Amino acid sequence: MNPTPLKDRAAIVGIGQTDFAKHLGPSEKALACRAIAMALDDAGIAAHEVDAFAAYTMEATDEVEIAKAVGAGDVTFFSRVGFGGGGSCATVGHIAMAIATGQANVGVAWRSRKRGSGPRPWTDTVNQLATPAQWTRPFGLLRPVDEIAVLARRYMHEYGLTREQLGAVAIACRNRANANPAAIMYERPLTMDDYLNARMISDPLCLFDNCLETDGALAVVMVSAERARDCRQAPVYVHAFGQGLPAQHHGMVNYWNDDPLAGPSWTAAEQLWKHADFGPADVDVAQIYDAFTPLIPLSLEGYGFCGKGEGGAFADDGGLELGGRLPVNTSGGGLSEAYVHGFNLINEGVRQLRGTSTNQVAGASTCLVTAGEAVPTSAVLLRRA
Amino acid sequence: MLKPLVDDDGAPYFEYAAKGELRMQTCANCGEVLFPPRPMCPRCQGIEFEWKLMSGRGHVWSFAVPRPPLLPDYAALAPYPVVVVELEEDRRLRLVGNLVASEGAAIDSVDPAAIEIGQPVRVVFQEIEGLFVAAWTPDA
């Protein structure tokens, strides 16, 4: 039996996305349908052929509502993945597994979220205080940014991560967004002075260490590698897929194990590289989940682009910029394009391998896309023919 | 302020804290000390527990200083430090809590600029919405 039955067996052949804005009029349900219809149109595949769906557990609209509105056929596979932004790449991975194992033929993964105009989840104090939040939030560690700020300060203490390095992360994402007309931060530059003088949100993290708050929806359409050859767009193959929930991991407040600075990306990475024909050095461009700037250096370490504790230095000397060691978040990412729980990173990964990014990495043939670090996570390695 | 959720696994913590004791869930079978509390010992799958008395001494492992936007009760006190304290018994036992100038002092009673990772702290207790929990104060 093929030891890596997933490898290159499924391909992303359609991508769709709505506008991104602080406020969009249509409902999350309507935005989801529009993004999916655009992805199907991009692929040149009729809606009635769709027989699989994958989404986040945080998605507000269920498969019944989506399928009946977009006009899907009989659906034989549907899957939900938990842990917010940790589930982004797993939606693609689950569809790839369904296609590779014959459970489905045409799959749709999507995310629709009105986080720009809707409520901040941490203000829901009724539904957010279960384990382990009752051991952290009553003391004023209220928001995801506070939870990551604790890790960031420890990272600074143990490995010498600097605010300038986090600033370089934010600026690299902003520079890409400045050239992406779809980005919220299109043509809105960010300087190191802006960064260093910004107000603190949770010291040591400032405003620009935080992602945007965005309304928007995105979707991808996937088929088998065989079917992909006949589609409208050049196929982007799912080369490898990994999920990661490490032993004794505790979610965003991962303070209760031997090394809280080695998060779920380490586990997902081990699974990912085990099944890949190439390694980190062969990755041309990466889309790394960036709800907060420290997640990028932590992920660079986890996915093996540098050693433990070296993620901050990786951002020095333009390391994350176009032409740098590893260009990241080439559409601007969650920090500067849109924060839609990381699904925009997937669409941008596809554009890079189609050669249609507004910040195209010349000749890019491989792209790593990651989901949220510091929560149970997932990642996909994409490649083109 | 947010009231901690008292569930089956963690209830004894709050009962002991009300008596001024910091006790941690401990597997009655293998002796593993567990935090956060849970219904089974991940080391031996035991389901009987004791609550072991801790020395109440530890070191600051890290901390954050939240600023608005925050829930109103917390915004009124911001900026305030929130510390993660590594207990001297086991470095994986890291309790999140407030660092206060003395028992009963407000959560903004210590200047965040004076806090250092590694500094020794000792437990005091504070009341949040009728429940007692561990807080920390600088240890000489």
Task: Briefly say what this structure is.
The complex is a heterodimer of chains A (385) and B (140). Chain A is built from twelve helices and eleven strands.
Describe how the helices and strands are arranged:
The complex is a heterodimer of chains A (385) and B (140).
Chain A: E1 10-17, H1 28-43, E2 52-56, H2 63-70, E3 77-81, H3 88-100, E4 107-114, H4 144-159, H5 163-177, H6 192-196, E5 200-203, E6 205-206, E7 215-224, H7 225-228, E8 236-244, H8 264-274, E9 285-287, H9 295-302, H10 311-314, H11 333-336, H12 343-354, E10 366-370, E11 377-384
Parallel strand pairs in A: 2-3, 2-4, 9-10
Antiparallel strand pairs in A: 1-7, 1-8, 4-7, 5-6, 8-11, 10-11
Helix pairs in contact in A: 1-2, 8-9
Chain B: H1 11-18, E1 23-27, E2 33-34, E3 49-53, E4 57-66, H2 72-75, E5 82-87, E6 94-98, E7 120-128, E8 131-138
Antiparallel strand pairs in B: 1-2, 1-3, 4-5, 4-7, 5-6, 7-8
Q: Trace the largest sheet of chain B across and list its strands.
A: 6-5-4-7-8
- Strand order in the sheet with the most strands of chain A: 3-2-4-7-1-8-11-10-9
Question: Strand-and-helix sequence of chain A, N→C?
Answer: EHEHEHEHHHEEEHEHEHHHHEE
The number of distinct β-strands of chain A equals 11
Quickly count the helices of chain B: 2
Describe the structure.
The complex is a heterodimer of chains A (385) and B (140). Chain A has 385 residues and is of the alpha/beta class. Chain A is 30% helix and 17% strand. In chain A, strands 3-2-4-7-1-8-11-10-9 form a 9-stranded mixed β-sheet. In chain A, helix 1 (28-43) packs across helix 2 and helix 8 runs parallel beside helix 9 (295-302). Chain A is globular. The mean pLDDT of chain A is 96. Chain B is mainly beta and 140 residues long. Chain B has helices at residues 11-18, 72-75; strands at 23-27, 33-34, 49-53, 57-66, 82-87, 94-98, 120-128, 131-138. In chain B, the strands form 2 sheets. Chain B has a 5-stranded antiparallel β-sheet with strand order 6-5-4-7-8, with helices on one face. In chain B, strands 2-1-3 form a 3-stranded antiparallel β-sheet, with helices on one face. The model of chain B has no long low-confidence stretch (mean pLDDT 96). At the A-B interface, helix 4 and strand 5 of A face strand 4 and strand 6 of B. Strand 5 of chain A pairs antiparallel with strand 4 (57-66) of chain B.
